[in-house]
Design a protein that fits this description.
Distance between the termini: 63 Å
Helix content: 40-55%
Order of helices and strands: HHHHHHHHHHHEHEHEEEEHE
Radius of gyration: 21 Å
CATH architecture of the largest domain: Up-down Bundle
Largest sheet: 7 strands, mixed
Strand content: 15-25%
CATH topology of the largest domain: Butyryl-CoA Dehydrogenase, subunit A, domain 3
Oligomer: single chain
Number of strands: 7
């Protein structure tokens, strides 16, 4: 088989996934088809011999094309042409991605996605819907992995917050109260209170570093999340993470894991455990209840 034919077959095998990425990015099947076709034109002229991960590389090519299209659309203040969805094949999705994709359908989602700037949209779509790590997404938008994570987190809050997030009508103080009550219920072993503060579809997600320290890679469902926290988190400290409510677990002077909460309509919908040292060293973390605090003066939580 000639090299061109081999590449064409590989590209066709990836086309459904690439179209799904492009549609989530653009909200238009017509534009998604154009983006994927443009990707093929570029790929067919490229030297792919040195590409180790062809699927990942193709996703990057399509994503960059979509990012350019979004930026061009934004500069002209255009809306997507249509909104016919292209679904990611079920066999390639994780359980958490299935749950996210269940929410990520219909005009309501596209209305919210259209309020995001291009970088936020790319970070959210590629990470939350397609599972790409932030260090792979970051070069596409010329940001650090930490900054990319913050973009995705902000976008996630808008998507899950719906109309309130679009209008900016978010009560940060109330969100902190919810997180504080949740952590208190966890320490006191108040299972029913934990469940009441969680969205029925609440999820826990941990990055690889946090998982290596014993955090669960993922948990889904209010009762399951409540069971994990029940009677625990006694050494956790309440903080804000980039202005949003959170908590940290520390040993001595070192923060080992940050808990980043997403609160929507007075319910916790997502708790993300962050253990990556690169992330932790750059995250804007402020301790609640102190006039001044930093990573060098935290007590041992034990």
């Amino acid at each position: 088989m000639q090299e061109h034919d081999w590449l064409a077959n590989k590209f066709e095998a990836q086309r459904p996934r690439l179209q799904a990425v492009a549609w989530r990015m653009l909200g238009s099947q017509t534009e998604a088809d154009d983006a994927v076709q443009e990707a093929w034109l570029r790929v067919s002229r490229a030297d792919v011999d040195s590409v180790d991960n062809l699927a990942g590389w193709l996703t990057t090519v399509v994503s960059r094309i979509c990012l350019d299209m979004l930026r061009s659309r934004t500069s002209r203040r255009e809306a997507p042409i249509d909104s016919a969805p292209v679904e990611l094949p079920a066999e390639s999705r994780t359980p958490e991605q299935e749950a996210v994709l269940a929410d990520a359908v219909g005009e309501a989602l596209m209305v919210v996605l259209d309020t995001l700037n291009p970088a936020e949209r790319l970070a959210f779509v590629l990470h939350d819907l397609f599972g790409l790590p932030f260090d792979e997404i970051a070069p596409m938008i010329d940001r650090t992995a930490v900054a990319t994570r913050q973009l995705a987190s902000r976008a996630r809050r808008r998507v899950r917050g719906g109309a309130d997030a679009i209008t900016g009508d978010i009560d940060t103080g109330r969100q902190r109260e919810v997180v504080s009550a949740f952590m208190a219920a966890a320490r006191n072993g108040e299972f029913d209170n934990l469940v009441s503060l969680l969205d029925p579809d609440a999820v826990i997600w941990a990055d690889p570093a946090a998982a290596a320290m014993g955090s669960p890679a993922s948990i889904e469902g209010a009762e399951e999340v409540a069971t994990f926290f029940n009677g625990k988190a006694r050494g956790a400290r309440l903080v804000t993470i980039d202005g949003d409510p959170g908590a940290v677990w520390a040993q001595g002077h070192t923060i080992n894991v940050a808990f980043d909460f997403t609160v929507v309509n007075d319910r916790i919908v997502r708790i993300e455990f962050i253990g990556s040292r690169d992330f932790l060293d750059e995250l804007p973390i402020e301790f609640i209840g102190r006039a001044r605090a930093n990573r060098e003066d935290q007590p041992n939580p034990a």
